[in-house]
């Protein structure tokens, strides 16, 4: 950074990086990402809450929809600067200035291609014609507005001497921000760092303006290149939520912001973004445009804070810093997610079981863990509901198990037939009647096990979502001075009720057997 640049940014350490969000312009103009004006307003509110410094709302000369969006946004969003994009054409600038009239903090963003390829094939203009057009456009705009950003489209593929010339001319004409786009995602970190260093130290007037980086992601380098531009002296970064944008997208806002926050000591730079709003804002955009991010997307992907492998889960349980460099809550996730699956270890399974209220002795944990591993061979992820069902099976293993059941409520009284296998593995079958299906079911279970339970409470509810949803039954019984709670889960709520009843009955029977063997041992 040269002396003038540091004067323009008094907060040198850490440097304050302005976040210029172009989700609603560069992001929105890419395939599958279009938004209606009311959707753009919703997104603009979220961006303002996120704390970005500048929101680029669109390209008013290109569409009526962008003009409407700007009008809606300008009416409500007063805090971040609102920018609109415009070609270096007086007709475009006129439309843009009209669109900016309602904004509390307006910025005009004009651009013109500078690279030889674009000059020759797209613009059919010489170097001199490009220079003249830039100066003319900025001079005209400067008569109407103070905050002007100028972008050298395809800047990173422009001859460096010409780039310096254009930037110097733009500054002299009145531009206040100079943006150097890597329009086709071609540059590398080392190249762009040097480019910014040389522009800032050599171009006349560079110290009076803010330099900005705008990197596309064609080689997956957008964030790395933007960070390198900051090292080279850029003090504004252009980015989009979830990295949406032309082709492979733009620099992802959530990634650049978190890189600066997590590696603040290294970059000595930070933004004004409220990072706890990153995930909600990302999810809002995903819903608005119907484009989900990949699971392993940095910061906002659903796997970004999920740990499945046993070694990682074990490390995380000892100290979260072993495998996490940022706290999920700091970017807006509720918490780290321990996904239980084939790679999970005993420690993670035990911790999850404790969270579900099961405190297991070593031997029981051994057994449950073996069953958990067997279950992982059949399904990719083991949910809490699966674990509960597994616990139930394990604990019922020493008692009565439900083999089959039928319940009928057709006649005057309901009737139920249950077939159980008893602790010795023998089948027991009983039928009973009751005032309703559950009453009949519990009567049949009592007849088959010889256990009489007097219910204190009985509830059923649904757990899980969508096709994974299951019924859960909870019941409490009092036996002597002690209260026992039982739980059963199944896709069928009557079966869940039978399992909950057996959960309690088996516990009572186990206790009776324990008491009998204690008496026998002391006799
Ligand atoms: O990628 C680009 O060059 C742009 C400019 C119009 C700023 O989006
Ligand atoms: Zn772009």
CATH topology of the largest domain: TIM Barrel
Mean pLDDT across all amino acids:
88
Q: What small ligands are held by the chains?
A: 3-methyl-2-oxobutanoic acid, zinc ion
Helix content: 40-55%
Radius of gyration: 33 Å
* Termini gap: 89 Å
CATH architecture identity of the largest domain: Alpha-Beta Barrel
Biggest sheet statistics = 8 strands, parallel, barrel
Number of strands: 18
Q: Give the CA-based shape.
A: elongated
Order of strands in the sheet with the most strands?
2-3-4-5-6-7-8-9
Q: Report the sheet-strand fraction.
A: 15-25%
Unreliable stretches covering 5 or more consecutive residues: 1-12, 517-523
Contiguous helical run count: 19
CATH class of the largest domain: Alpha Beta
| Total individual domains | 3
List keywords for this structure.
523 residues, alpha/beta, TIM Barrel, Double Stranded RNA Binding Domain, 3 domains, 8-stranded parallel barrel, 3-stranded antiparallel beta sheet, 19 helices, 44% helix, disordered N terminus, binds 3-methyl-2-oxobutanoic acid, binds zinc ion
């Amino acid at each position: 950074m040269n002396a003038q640049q540091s004067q323009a940014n008094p907060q040198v350490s850490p440097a304050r990086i302005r976040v210029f969000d172009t989700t609603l312009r560069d992001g929105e103009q890419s395939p599958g990402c279009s938004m209606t004006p009311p959707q753009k307003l919703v997104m603009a509110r979220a961006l303002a809450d996120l704390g970005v410094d500048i929101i680029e709302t669109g390209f008013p000369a290109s569409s009526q929809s962008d003009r409407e969006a700007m009008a809606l946004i300008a009416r409500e969003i007063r805090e971040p600067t609102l920018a609109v994009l415009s070609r270096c054409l007086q007709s475009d600038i006129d439309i843009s200035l009209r669109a900016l009239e309602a904004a509390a903090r307006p910025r005009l963003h004009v651009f013109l291609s500078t690279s030889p390829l674009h000059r020759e094939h797209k613009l059919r203009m010489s170097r001199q014609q490009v220079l003249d057009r830039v100066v003319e456009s900025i001079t005209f705009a400067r008569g109407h507005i103070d905050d002007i950003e100028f972008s050298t489209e395809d800047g990173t593929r422009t001859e460096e001497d010409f780039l310096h010339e254009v930037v110097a001319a733009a500054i002299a004409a009145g531009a206040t921000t100079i943006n150097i786009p890597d329009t086709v995602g071609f540059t590398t970190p080392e190249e762009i760092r040097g480019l910014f260093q040389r522009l800032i130290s050599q171009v006349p007037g560079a110290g009076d303006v803010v330099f900005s980086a705008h990197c596309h992601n064609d080689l997956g380098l957008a964030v790395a290149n933007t960070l390198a531009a900051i090292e080279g002296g850029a003090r504004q970064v252009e980015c989009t939520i979830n990295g949406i944008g032309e082709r492979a997208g733009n620099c992802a806002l959530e990634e650049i912001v978190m890189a600066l926050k997590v590696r603040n000591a290294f970059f000595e730079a930070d933004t004004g973004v409220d990072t706890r709003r990153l995930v909600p804002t990302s999810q809002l955009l995903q819903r608005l445009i119907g484009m989900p991010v990949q699971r392993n997307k940095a910061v906002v992907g659903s796997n970004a804070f999920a740990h499945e492998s046993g070694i990682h889960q074990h490390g995380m349980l000892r100290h979260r810093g072993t495998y996490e460099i940022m706290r999920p809550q700091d970017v807006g996730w509720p918490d780290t997610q321990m996904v239980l699956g084939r790679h999970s270890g005993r420690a993670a399974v035990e911790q999850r079981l404790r969270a579900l209220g099961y405190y297991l002795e070593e031997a029981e944990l051994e057994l449950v863990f073996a069953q958990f591993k067997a279950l992982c061979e059949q399904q990719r992820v083991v949910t809490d509901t699966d674990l509960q069902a597994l616990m139930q099976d394990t604990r019922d293993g020493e008692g009565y198990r439900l083999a089959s059941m039928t319940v009928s409520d057709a006649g005057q009284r309901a009737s139920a037939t249950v077939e159980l296998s008893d602790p010795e593995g023998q089948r027991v079958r009983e039928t009973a009647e009751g005032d309703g299906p559950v009453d009949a079911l519990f009567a049949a279970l009592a007849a088959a096990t010889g256990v009489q339970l007097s219910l204190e409470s009985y509830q059923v509810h649904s757990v899980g979502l969508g096709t994974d949803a299951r019924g859960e039954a909870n019941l409490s019984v009092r036996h002597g001075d002690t209260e026992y709670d039982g739980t059963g889960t199944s896709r069928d709520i009557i079966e869940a009720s039978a399992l909950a009843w057996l959960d309690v009955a088996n516990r009572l029977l186990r206790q009776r057997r324990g008491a009998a063997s204690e008496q026998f041992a002391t006799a």
